Amino acid sequence: MYKPLKTRLIVLAAVLSCTVAGVAAAADVKPRLIRFGYGLNDESVQGRAARYLAQELEKISGGKLKMKTFGSANLGSDEQMQGALAGGAQEMMVGSTAPLAGMVKEFGVFDLPFLFNSEKEADAVLDGQLGQDLLKKLEAKGLVGLVYWENGFRNMTNSKRPIVRAEDMQGIKLRVMQNQIALGVFNTLGANAVPMPFSELFTALETRTVDGQENPITTIQSSKFYEVQPYLTITRHVYTPWVVLASKKWWDKLSPDEQRLVRQAAEASRDFERKDSRADSLKAMGTLEQAGMKINTVSPEEVARMREKVQPVVDKYTQELGPDLIQQLNTEISKARN
Ligand code: TF8
């Protein structure tokens, strides 16, 4: 049967558009409410990215997937939320990799000091093979790791004195994240390391339960640590990522379409957050200076001495985490570096 080409094209277009519309209509997305918890306040990098994620997800799901965000550890500390996700009592969260090392020890690689030189190197490792393999290991623990956000390069603040040489850390009661490697690193540097959840940190600094802490300058600013910590020392001793997590119990109940939308929104939030974090980091320095913090930068020679001092801790955890993993890590870093 002969039909003119034009008619055939119209029929073809009609069939195609029906198929496209059919797929969209058939997309299996139910109305859902997702509770997303995080530890910093609403004005932080974390808060802004959480709101972005919620808006993005609502937009691409046509309003069906609604996310309610809870900042300032209102749903619990990072550790508590990890437990709630694993048990299925909460849907999603973002938190540091450091406390995750209690569940999957290999996340401890990001607590090894002086690993990355730049954000670019960190992005390459996190979004590359090693970072993605680590996320997969979470599934056996009841968590689904979606994307990495930037927490950032950490620096030290305290209420005693500027840290010019490693020796200046002697006797400083320093809050660290709840992680064996962080504990080992700071005790070896001479500090008196105290593991503590972030949610208790401001009060601990204010009441002088601890003398100092270490975090990226974005957090030192948004959490107003400058109100209780006169000294800031730029050390960039470690780069901490944040991970956006979902409860596996909950995730497994989502349709493939719903999972795809959550992943897509998470990826968009990652790109937004990293850009925002880097821009905020440039501004934060000036704000902290204006707030009256006394800021110094540790010299490269002194960083080299610190590195040397903590080498035994690095060697110990290289054995514990697996020399192969550390080798893969170093290979991926040097690839990104060159
Ligand atoms: C820390 C981390 C915190 C995050 C946050 C509470 O010092 O750097 O920024 O884990 O989710 O605990």
TrEMBL record:
CDD domains: PBP2_TRAP_YiaO_like. The keyword Cell division does not apply. Residues 1-26 form the signal peptide. The keyword Oxidoreductase does not apply. Keywords: Signal. GO terms for cellular component: outer membrane-bounded periplasmic space. One of its GO terms (molecular function) is carbohydrate binding. It comes from the Bacteria. One of its GO terms (biological process) is transmembrane transport. Pfam families: DctP. Coiled coil: none annotated. This is 2,3-diketo-L-gulonate-binding periplasmic protein YiaO. It comes from Achromobacter deleyi. The lineage of its organism: Bacteria, Pseudomonadati, Pseudomonadota, Betaproteobacteria, Burkholderiales. The gene is yiaO.
